[in-house]
Amino acid sequence: MKKIGFLSFGHWSASPHSMVRSASDALLQSIELAVAAEEAGADGAYYRVHHFAQQLASPFPLLAAAAARTSRIELGTAVIDMRYENPLYMAEDAGAADLISGGRLQLGISRGSPEQVIDGYRYFGYEPSEGRSDADMARDHTNVFLEVLKGDGFARPNPRPMFANPPGLLRIEPHAPGLRDRIWWGAGTRGTAEWTAEQGMNLMSSTLLTEDTGVPFHQLQAEQIQRFRDAWKTAGHDREPRVSVSRSIFPIVNDLDKQLFWQERGSTDQVGWLDGGNARFGRTYAGEPDKLIAELAEDEAIAAADTLLLTVPNQLGVDYNAHVLDSVITHLAPGLGWR
Do residues 153 and 171 make contact, with C-beta atoms less than 8 angstroms apart? Predict the structure, then answer.
């Protein structure tokens, strides 16, 4: 059994070919796709966070709205760039959204990805301290965020407050029990996967890794997952971790599928240059169901993960993306033992 969800970047464009013309369209359709995903039997609705771009940005209003329209699926991010975040305010927003969802939030966070602007986090008021990098700052914000999610008091109360306080130090409110165990780190290398395990976060691995050893992407990612699990065991955490991988998967079951994705049938891994080093990008899976079942059965990273996030082309609209999810769940999942 494997949890299957979607991951949307929430692009919008005024292009006549786009079904998502505005920010309003992107937000409202993101909610509708979560509803459709739940109806199709999917397990999760995840959203990417990008700043200074015509894509989804502030995630918590969206997550809360999707939570109010659904009852079962997980709702998450993949990922929030922690360089931009005030960890205490984020803990308040996350706590509220999680309580609205009934404890269904699964928050993917990370150091972030290449940006639309130069050092965009500086416009948000954040500056790495002397001798520290922006990646260090993201981890510092993360450490504070994880600590306050535990729910322990740390703030000294006013001796003459407007409202009565409980005894002792005060914590961030609202507190969402269990949310600390539902935080994921988007790791781009094998080393950061090991660090993720040491911090007691779940592992979120996408369709690219910022390193390349010459082996196929799925094998490199499977090694990353194994290193994560080994480091988790060494750290001695008292729960089982979760691992997700992202894939672009398009079963061709009708003429529109064929028109849109027929040329992707021969997709292969790609190696490129990202952030000053080699990076390996995973392939797109497209083809008839029998062909995809055979190919996906050989994907070692999918086999090693408990959660699969399907990256969806959101500008094709809610109906088409709901069809993609239904096709994967109906035509592929039973043959692969995921259902």
Answer: yes
The pLDDT score that the predictor gives to residue 276 is 62
Segments of the chain with pLDDT less than 50: none
pLDDT digits (tens, 9 = 90+) for 55-98: 999 999 999 999 999 999 999 999 999 999 999 999 999 999 99
**Is the CB of residue 69 less than 8 Å from the CB of residue 31?**
yes
Burial of 306 from C-beta contacts in 10 A (0-12 / 13-18 / 19+): middle
Complete domains list, the chain, with CATH: 3-336 (3.20.20.30)
> How far is it, in rounded angstroms, from Cα 250 to Cα 285?
6
Pairwise CA distance, residues 46 & 87, whole Å: 20
d(CA 192, CA 210): 11
What is the crossing angle of helices 59-69 and 87-101, to 10°? Answer: 10
Alpha-carbon gap, residue 314 to 248, rounded angstroms? 12
Instruction: Please enumerate in sequence order all residues whose Cβ is within 8 A of that of 200, keeping only pairs 6 or more positions apart, or say none.
Output: 146, 181, 235, 237
pLDDT tens profile 169-186 = 999 999 999 999 999 999
